[in-house]
Write a sequence for this structure.
C-alpha cells in the first residue's frame, strides 16, 4: 500500500526557512506529478507548487514564487518543499500529494491526486 509520509513542519519566524519532505513509500508507485497543497484555518486548500516527476517541470502559485522551491530525489522517491523568506500568511497545514497521471491543466487542482500525505503544520510568527 502506498503511503506519503511528510516531515519537516514546525515553527519559524518571519523571514526564516523550513524544508518539508515527503517520502513516497510502499508499493511500486512512480508518481506522474507531485504537489504541495496548504490549508489555512477557515480557508480552502490551495495548491502551492507542482512538479512533473519525469521532466522536473515545476509550477508555483504567485504568492510563493521566488520564495519556495519544489524538488525531488528520484532515488529515494522523495519530494521536497524548500520555503524561504517565510511570511505569517504562509501559516497552514501543508499536504503533499501524488498522481499517477494528470492533464497538465489540472496540476493545481486537487482532482487528479489519488495519494495524499497526512499533513504537517507550518506556523510562521511575526
Amino acid at each position: 500500500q502506498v503511503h506519503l509520509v511528510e516531515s519537516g513542519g514546525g515553527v519559524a519566524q518571519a523571514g526564516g526557512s523550513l524544508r518539508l519532505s515527503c517520502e513516497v513509500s510502499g508499493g511500486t508507485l512512480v508518481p506522474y506529478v507531485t504537489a504541495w497543497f496548504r490549508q489555512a484555518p477557515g480557508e480552502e486548500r490551495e495548491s502551492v507548487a507542482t512538479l512533473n516527476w519525469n521532466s522536473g517541470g515545476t509550477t508555483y502559485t504567485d504568492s510563493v514564487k521566488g520564495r519556495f522551491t519544489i524538488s525531488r530525489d528520484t532515488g529515494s522517491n522523495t519530494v521536497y518543499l524548500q520555503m524561504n523568506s517565510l511570511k505569517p500568511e504562509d501559516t497552514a497545514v501543508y499536504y503533499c500529494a501524488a498522481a499517477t497521471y494528470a492533464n497538465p491543466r489540472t496540476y493545481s487542482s486537487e482532482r487528479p491526486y489519488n495519494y495524499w500525505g497526512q499533513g504537517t503544520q507550518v506556523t510562521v510568527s511575526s
